[in-house]
Amino acid sequence: MARKIGVLTSGGDCPGLNAVLRGVTRAAMALGWEVFGFEDGFEGLLPPSRSLRLDRASTAGIMHLGGTILHTTNKGHFVTKTGRRGKLQVPPGVIEKARATLAEMEISALVVIGGDGSMTTALQLFDAGLPVVGVPKTIDNDLAATSMTFGFDSAVACVAESLDRLHTTATSHRRVIVVEVMGRHAGWIALHGGLAGGADIILIPEIPFDMDRVAEAIGRRDEQGCSSTLMVVAEGAEAAHGEQIYQRQGQGEVRLGGIGEWVAAGVAKRTGKDVRTCVLGHLQRGGAPTTFDRILGTRFGVKAVELIERELWGYMVNFMGDEVGEVPIAHAVERLRRVSPESEIIRAARAVEISFGD
Ligand code: F6P
Asked: Cβ distance 168 to 197 under 8 Å?
């Protein structure tokens, strides 16, 4: 049997994807495998298939680059998502086309690098009998069964650096600056980025907020002689009796955004302060991966090849404690990993007088 591995990156990009591609390629080639990268996520599997040979030369000098040299998409024929419009499944005909491509190219293992949606697709391909292993990625860090995904640390670094910059201008003008960050339905980026960047108020989806409490927190700061305030608001944060704010319904997934402006208007109305909003958006997904994400990406890539050698189809690599291990993909997609309002990190944040608006 030909020793050929296929690999693809799917869903939103994030820093560290190229480190995984490099890790998979190097570890696989050392064991006598050839590696082919499919372009544009799963779409590259559809005829006429689009792939490129990955070898030492084509993966040299890419580890420090953000994004993915294979390109990616969070749309297309393979979207599986439990969205507000109900559950989407990959049509059986599409899976058969993917199977035919792998057979024709004599590929005996497929590495899927993706987030919860892509892992759900990977699981469906595995259930259809395809030899799939998963590598979790997302800046949101919301995948169950892994305590960390690469991309998250880079996104947090972006938020922290942005807060460092905004701090000086907010202080100079005695302003409130509201920074809206990504993270979808989990508050990890807001919480870690806010803590690292010295935010005064952090609003996350897991702790519904009350605008009156937010205004009180700003008032308390005034009494203490702090006339500026930095707020971090997760895009999925919700007021206690409000609704999530989103822009439009995408393919199986809502596109969040707009809560920052909403909160800023509420703060201005209640406090009379000069308030500005800064939406970090895709800046959090771009740029070079941090050293942590480069290393985790490399370890994940190497582990994925080990899973292939062991024929552990339907498994995903994960990170728990300090170890890279493996877990059935089914465990990883059964629920989202969200911030626990009672956790130690939330208590620590409260101890340093960060308000969650509750
Ligand atoms: O899941 C990663 C993520 O960056 C979310 O934090 C964000 O809500 C979403 O993707 C944005 O997606 P898009 O790139 O399609 O705008």
From this structure: no
- What is the Cβ-side half-sphere exposure of residue 294, based on CA atoms within 13 angstroms? 11
- As a whole number of angstroms, the distance between CA 143 and CA 263 comes to 28
Could you tell me if 72 and 9 are in contact, meaning their C-beta atoms sit under 8 angstroms apart?
yes
Spell out, as residue ranges, where the chain has pLDDT lower than 50.
83-85
List C-alpha distances in Å: 160 to 67, 77, 124, 156, 309.
20, 36, 37, 6, 40
For residues 337, 338, 340 and 345, what is the CA-based torsion angle, rounded to 10 degrees? 100
Q: Dihedrals φ, ψ of 35, to 5°?
A: -125, 135
Q: What is the C-alpha separation between 46 and 219, in angstroms, rounded?
A: 58
CA of 255 to the centre of ligand 1 (A): 7
pLDDT given at position 249: 61
Tokens of 332: 């990883």
Give the integer Cα–Cα distance in Å for 357 and 354: 9
Predicted pLDDT at 253:
67
Instruction: Tell me whether residue 116 is one of the annotated catalytic residues.
Output: no
Ligand 1 within 6 A of CB of 184:
yes
What CA–CA distance (Å, rounded) separates 8 from 38? 5
